[in-house]
Amino acid sequence: MPHLTESVTWQALKTNVASLPHMREMFASDANRFENMHLKSCGLMLDYSKNRVNSETLSLLFKLAEEADLTNKISAMFNGEIINNTEQRAVLHSALRSQAHQNIQAEGQNIVPEVQQTLAKMAGFVEQVQSGQWTGYTGKAITDIVSIGIGGSFLGPKIVTQALRPYWNKLNCHFVANVDATSICEKLAGLNAETTLFVMSSKSFGTQETLTNTLSAKEWFLNQGATQQDVAKHFVAVTSNVNKATDFGMDANNIFPMWDWVGGRYSLWSAIGLPIALIIGMDNFKQLLSGAFDMDEHFQQAPLEQNMPVIMGMLSVLYSNFHNAQSHVILTYDHYLRGLPAYFQQLDMESNGKSVTLEGSRVDYSTGPVIWGGEGTNGQHAYHQLLHQGTALIPADFIMPLQSHNPLGEHHNQLASNCFGQTQALMQGRTFDEAMAEMNNSALSDDQKQLIAKHKVMEGNKPSNTLLMDKLTPKTLGSLIALYEHRTFVQGIIWQINSFDQWGVELGKVLGNDVLERIGADNDADELDSSSNALINIFRNGKI
Ligand SMILES: O=P(O)(O)OC[C@H]1O[C@](O)(CO)[C@@H](O)[C@@H]1O
User: Fold this and answer.
1) Catalytic residue chosen out of the listed positions 101, 381, 455, 543
2) Which intervals of the chain form a coiled coil (predicted)?
3) Is 73 a catalytic residue?
């Protein structure tokens, strides 16, 4: 197989991209453009017509995907092959949302039964806590869940519970991730130890932030009048390292397992999702899984040309590699989805922020872009300016439910009109003549008009996808998140990288621990670089 960027298809894409007219012209010359460039699946509708593509671009992108053996690579992931080659692990988050009768093999055994057993254990626990049968040390029912974890053991549960606010039962939930004591102190300040349940989530059970926060939570708990024997009623753990958790003092009955074949940033579907289930109930949690399962089926079965994650992944490759786009923005037109950009940022950047191929060669093309974003319409009064008129090309995903959970007057119509209006403005832009025409009735001099018109010109031709759903439900949210997981996978396959390890962040963990030792040492640091030594010593002195 030729080197990726030297392949005939890659070169043909370069030629195609250079020859395409402005999107405005492509819309004008093809009344069926939307008809031909949208698809519906799993409760989602993707409109990808506002992208810099014609039918040839799309064919070439699918050809590139075929040449990367994408279809077989998808099967390899779902079949439990060891595709995470640096950690020698299968990648089976899809097994967490599989159906009970399936047989999915990891390391020679069917893992579906243990997935089902864990779901049953979660269901029993959720029922006990929600019904008030599970009581705290003074016999009172639990009112507050505090989830302690970080990275993949935190952001999924936080963003999903935030997104599914309309489905909350009577329990309150709080998330602590940062080791900054302010985070846990602020959370604990308003809580009653008698009615608070801590869920400690750590796949490795070795992450500094999570261990420190859990110890502080336990100390707070004991300082409120509880005893060591009461701990089991108030602390449960989710981990793949059961031995470490019991050594730490967790009651063996209170440990919910997860497995090596689930990557942290793909783990909200496992027992890491326990805080979600406690807050929205097990039935809703299963709906979330079922939405993701539907997307798994679609991803495996739909032909590449009608495959939502494939289309989105290949469009992202197009912009990263043929338009030099360095970032990608996620714009959610739904207040409940305001956290989703951060979640997709973790998912995509921790997965595809790589510069070495699976075989260990340095890539000579761009890989994962910076993912960022926020909620509409707020961003329209801030960074959208750069999207419209800045020098960088930033492809955008607009995400919006058609029905609001809070219908109120004209609000939703206005929200939708802003969402659609933005995609239109990005695509068509505004020409100099249009800008001049807008000033027809103005008293400005011709020179002034010309000057202002130059500033009002918007080149347009800025790409966007629009993703719609009828309503934000646990099921549609499950499909949406799985869509982005698979989109990330597709990109990784084309770029020939391992999307499932994270050696960069691991180094940060190791060096952080090393610095911590030096901060606590008897003598000043002098063995590191001059900057690091100085920063440590200034910190030890407590004064700049
Ligand atoms: O669940 P753990 O083992 O505490 O790890 C937390 C997070 O740390 C990382 O290893 C690095 O940030 C993530 O992949 C993981 O989700």
Assistant:
1) 381
2) none
3) no
